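Late entry, written up from scratch paper. The run itself happened at the end of the previous shift, but nothing got recorded in the book at the time, so transcribing now.
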Amino acid sequence: MELYLDESGNTGCVTVKENDYFNFKEQRHFVLCGIKVQDEQDKKKLKERYKHFKEVFGIKEEIKGSDLMTRKYNKELAYFLDNILDNIHFQICIYDKKFYIATLLMSTIIDNSIKCEFSVEYYQLADTLVSHNEDLLVEYCKLAENPNNESFERFLKSIINHRYFNIQNEENLLIICAEYILQEGDYVSYLSTILQHGSYTNNKYINVINLNCLTELILQVKKSYGLVNEKLNIFHDKIDGYDKTFNSELKPFDIKINFTDSKDEELIQIADNVASIVAKCINECIKRFEEKKEWEEDSAWIMKQYAKVIDKLTIYNIKFTLPVKNWATSLCIREMFKDENPINQRNEKYFNEHYYKYIYEIYQNIDNKNFNAREHLKFLKK
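Output as recorded:
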């Protein structure tokens, strides 16, 4: 199998600026798209579909996904979603950047065995860190810039004193673990888990979100198809400054990424189109819900596009690494903004009916999932 990859959402490190704001604005989510082709015949058929798409609209050069999401290219977008996107060739990984930082923070303090045993509580806690008061996320990013015993101890005390939404202190995994670490007073092993300067081969990098996303997508594909590394050839659009780091970090797992310019490979162009479309959809849709504008008339178009994207890909080909409420909201959008769904059922009443059903299903999914990091890394190396 061959896997062709491109991403959207600002490549690289997730950090905070001097004013304590994260280094992303509208790009709240990071999206990686993988295109899976079984053999040369499969690859040829997909390329022919894309070639026909370009011929229909007289497209001579490479077209970017960001262009497809503009009003000028509405017809092209509709054709692309109907005729290129499918549930066979595409694999998507969506990361909320704040949620990514929350999971890094928690994995520093909470042992993986506890996460495996209390997976639902773990996810609920990560949700709380993202959705209610981001102070701890900001402080963690600052800690990662220069971790030492003194700053780590301050951070542990901040965890204990932080106000958590709807979680009692005596049931809070972070507080329980932070109190234990403070009592023990040995911080060395915990400091070593922080993705700080020096954790990657390039000392300038910390919290490289696209590397996490990449390994998760590769793991998904390998598990879905029962592949070993020698049977999977991976091609990724060129990323200035990150190619050497990617291959250096993946070398211990016997995984090599071939970096290719999108101008030379049409499947990477398609991956760019899809990654950009998905990123635009989720960024805009979640923003509309957060601003309480989801039922306004001018929100309908982007909601319909997101619904169609999820429906075409199916949820089995999308990994949502998001706060549960946004994960559930995405599934509600798919349900409510399908073309066949009546317009008069796009309102708060019907949303709540779908929303609580999906919240329950998501937590069921989390409860049944294997979060054993050691097993995942072992499989990644096969």
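The longest helix spans residues 266-290.
(Scratch paper discarded after transcription.)
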